[in-house]
Every structure is written in structure tokens, then in C-alpha cells.
Amino acid sequence: MKKLMKMTLRTQITLSMILLTLIATITVALSSWNICKNKIEYNYKVANETNLQIFNDIISDKMKDLNELVRAVFLSKDFQAIIETENVSGSSNYTSAQRHLFWKFFRELESQNELIKGVAIFDKEGRYTFWYRNAFSTGEYRDYYYGKNAEQEDWYQEAVAKKGLEVYYNYNVLADDHNDSIVSMVKELRDPASRQSIALAVVLLSDDFLNSTFLGTGKDFNSEVLMVVDDKHAVFDVWSTSSGDDYKEAYETYLSGNARGNLIITEKKNEISGWTLVHTIDAEELSRESAYLRTLMVLISVLIIAICLLITHFLSRQIYLPLGKLESIILKIQEGSRNITEEFDDSEIGKIGNTLKNTVNNNIELQERILRLQLKEKESELQLLQAQINPHFLYNTLDSIYCKAELEEQQEIADMVEALSDLFKISLSKGQRIIQIKEELRYIEQYVKIQNLRYKNRFELILEVDEELLELYIIKLILEPFVENAITHGLETRLGGGYVEMKGEILGDEIYFTVTDNGIGMKDPDDIYSGYGVRNVIERIHLYYGEEYGVQVTSKPNVGTEVQIHVPRLDNKEAGLADIYS
To answer: Distance (Å, rounded) from C-alpha 332 to C-alpha 320?
Structure first.
């Protein structure tokens, strides 16, 4: 990471995009391939379940047909009449006539169902008879001719326990060699009236009805296996697309519960026989079906990575170019350039570049403006010093005039001179720009006093100012011009007397002064801004306090004018003004 951070931004972006693209592409490709693989396996399993169900239904239908046929023949009155004939001789064989009657029924079974290969009857009188399709063979049943007792066989006991229900075995129960091509159906025969057991029938069937034809349909698989497993988990019929005994591994895996999970196993249980149809296929071989998907995913991933590399190259270039311009601006600033002219686009970096450019240019302009203001301030200070070369001479002269007016009893002249002297003192304020608000109000009072001496007390001054305001500070002569404006333009031309009301209140960290008169008013309140005195006050407020402070005027003709002056609260001369004179 440290090495990466030392590289250029363009290299960092390129490497990061390549890494993210690789991670995202590999993740998506593996996920997609895995989903497709699972989907293929799922679809194959669903299809096999359907095929297996069809195969199971075919087996069940054939068994149902066989069961119905056997029941129709073995439970007929004529057939049972032969069985229930009393065994007078005590022989284990039926008479020749009885056997011919049996074979008549057996041939009827043979003609109606080609799966039947043979039939054996064991009755409760100890007699038995055998019949085999096309020819009677005694070789397989010779043990019964030599006294073998069928009732002691397991299959016999199991069939009796089923009480008349058919029981299927996957071998020839009558022969010791357990012929794989023969399936046995064993059924206890009962008297329909008494429900008593009268005999046991064994029907030998060809296992052709178990043949499957759906293995490997449409696919070239080499690991498909279809097994028929009985209720004792013994496999007796196997169909496989592989050669040899490969099915044994599949069978053992099935018995183990597919512990390794390397097979896809589908099974269906036949409810009539109790056998289970089991289909297996190697999961790896089935996965090879999705091999072309894996190849396609690889090609798509390579294509995506190539496209992302091109996009990364383009985007990194788009980001790097404005950064290069930004770096160029910073170098120019460091070299002292006074004007930045580079142009940027509308991107985020472009906006930063434009902001920086405008900030630098504005700062340069502001510095020049401040320099000009400082020069003006110095000129004003020089002019003020010149005006104060001998202020005592002016005050002494005014005092002399005042004393002479008093001696000659010219009281109005004395009052006017006294008021004028106070005005000079306040306006000069020993050269200070910041004065207390109470001094500004005293200046207003002296001004109105002079005007009333001139106009025979036509004007009334009303002061409603919070006591707390009197000790606070303000730049001087920003209230008096509005009182002067109210008298000169609002009240002088009005017939009769008038008033000027000055209100002052503190709201948080701000002060609001309101100057109201009942003069002639104005049609357009903006006319007040055309006067030099008002314009000068507004510029001074903006200069000293900031653009958020200033003056607001409302006026109605023949009603009067209201001016609101908004300034910050200053508790001492320096508060909030330190940056003005820096």
C-alpha cells in the first residue's frame, strides 16, 4: 500500500480499477457458472424423477393387471372347488383329473398374460402341483417331490403374514439357484366366505416388465446406473451405460447415503412390490455438460477486463488532465502570478479548479482593494490631522462669541454657538472612529437643537433607546445623517410642526436603530440612496461591519419615512474591528 501511494494518481486509479475488475469479474463468473451448474443438475434430477415416476407407474400398472388376473382365476368358485376337494388318499399329489383341471386354469393365465412363466399351488391338505410354461419341468422342484415342506420356507411365512395380499420376490422362490430372470409373486388363497386360508399360490414371472428404456436418452453419459433394490436393500436388476461391474460402486455409494456426495441420486419406491427404483449418475460427468459455459464465462471475463482497461485508461486521463491544470495553477501562485486564466470543465475536479482560480483572483482583487482603502485611510488621517492643527483656537473663538452673546443678552446666538461647539467636539472626537452610542445621540440632540433655534421649535425629537445601548460602541456619524435627512427633506417642506423618533434595541448580538418621521414621505424609497450622506453611511457600514449589515428604508407619500439601521453589538472600541485596521 505504501508503494502504491507513492505512485502517480493515474497509476493508482489504473491499478485499483484493474484489481476491482478482476475481483468483480471472477466473482460474477464463478457465481454464474456455479448457478448454471446447479441449475443443470437440478433440471436433470427433475427430468429423471419424471422418467422414474413414469417407469414406476408402468411397473405398477403391470403388477395391478397381474394381481387382478390372478385374483379373478384363483378366487373363482371352480378353482377353489378343486383345492377344497378332500384329500382322501392322503397323497401329496392331486389326481390326474384334478391336475388337468388346474392346467386348464393355468393355460388361461398364460394366454392372458405373457409374463407368467409358471404356477405352483400348495393347499392345506398337503397337496401341491406345479406348472411351467410350454413344458412341465420337474428338475427345479424335485426337492418338493422328495418331501420338502414349503410351509417352513421364509417366503411362505411372509406371504401368510400378509393375509391374502400379494408379495413379490426378486427371484424364483421354488428354485435354489435363484434365477435372475424370474420374479416370484406369492399369495395366500382364502375362502371368500369363511376367510380361512385354503392354499398358497406361487406365480413365476418373467422380469421383462422391469426393463428400462430411458437411460442415456439424448445424452452421451457413461456413468448412468438404474437399479431395482428390494426392501432388504438387495439389488437384483441393474441397467448401466458403463461396462463391467461399475454399478457396484454406485450401489455402495447409495447404501452409504451418498456420504461423499459424488453422485446425483434419484429414487422412487414402488408401493405394490415394495421395491425401490434407484437412478444414479456421476455429478462430475454431469458437470461436464456446463463445460462450454465455463469456457464462455472465461471469454466474457477476458472481454470485460479488456473493456474495463480501456475505460480505466480513458477515465484516468480525464481525471489526470484537470489535476495537471490544477497543479499548474498552484505553481503559478507560488511564482507570484497575478492573474489565473486556465479554463476547467464541469467535473468535480474542474469545479475545484474554477473555485481555486476564482478564489485566487478574488483574493488578489481584494488585496488591491484593501491597499487602496488603506491609502485612503492614511489620506483621511492626514486631512484630519490638518483639520486638528489648532482645535483649541476654534473652541476658544466659539467660547469668546458665546460670552459676548451672553453679555449682550443675545441668548439664541449663545445657545446656537454652544450647540455648534458641542457638534465640533463630538465630530472630531479626538480623532477616534469609534464612539459610544450616547455620544452619537448627544450629537443628534445638538443638531436638532440648532435646527429648532433656526426654525422656532418646529421639530420634536423623541428618543426611545435601551439604557444598555448607551454604553456600547458604534462608528461615529452613522445615525445623524438619517435624522438630518428626515428634517431637511421630510419636515422642512411640511406645513406646521413634525417629529423625528429614534428607537434603539438589542436583539442577541445585533443592534437595530429605527428613525421615523411624519414628513411628506417619498414615492420611491430608493431615492434616499441617491444622497451622498446616506450613500457614505452605507459604504462605511459595509466596510467596517460587513455586507450582512446595512440600511433598509420604507416610505409612503404624505405619511412619513422609516429607516432601519442594522449593526453588530460592540462592547468596546476594538471588539469585532480588529481586522479592519490590520
So the answer is: 18
Q: How far apart are the first and last CA of the chain?
A: 47
Nearest CA-CA partner of 54 in 290, 217, 223:
217
What does the alpha-carbon distance between residue 365 and residue 359 come to, in Å, rounded to a whole number? 10
Q: pTM (2 decimals)?
A: 0.47
Q: What are the C-alpha distances in Å from 219 to residues 216, 223, 246, 542?
A: 5, 11, 19, 90
Distance CA 428, CA 477 (A): 11
Higher-confidence residue of 143 and 101: namely 101
Residue appearing with cell numbers 405398477: 60
125 φ/ψ angles, rounded to the nearest 5 degrees: -85, 0
Map residue 49 onto helix, strand or coil: helix
Contact in structure between 173 and 157 (CB atoms under 8 Å): no
> What pLDDT, on the 0 to 100 scale, is given for residue 567?
94
- Cα 138 to chain centroid distance, Å, stands at 81
What's the pLDDT score for residue 566? 94
Helix (H) or strand (E) holding 521: none
Q: Cell numbers of 514, please?
A: 429605527
User: Are 273 and 59 within 8 A, CB to CB?
Assistant: yes
Give the chain's length.
582
Helix (H, G, I), strand (E, B) or coil at 182: strand
Q: How far is CA 451 from CA 205, 413, 435, 448, 478, in A?
A: 141, 13, 23, 5, 19
Q: How many other β-carbons are positioned within 10 Å of the β-carbon of residue 192?
A: 9
Residue type for 235, please?
V
The 8-class DSSP code of residue 93 comes to B
* pLDDT for the residue numbered 553: 93
184 half-sphere exposure, CB direction, 13 A CA radius: 20
Q: Is 204 in a helix, a strand, or coil?
A: strand
Q: Which helix (H) or strand (E) holds 228?
A: strand 225-229
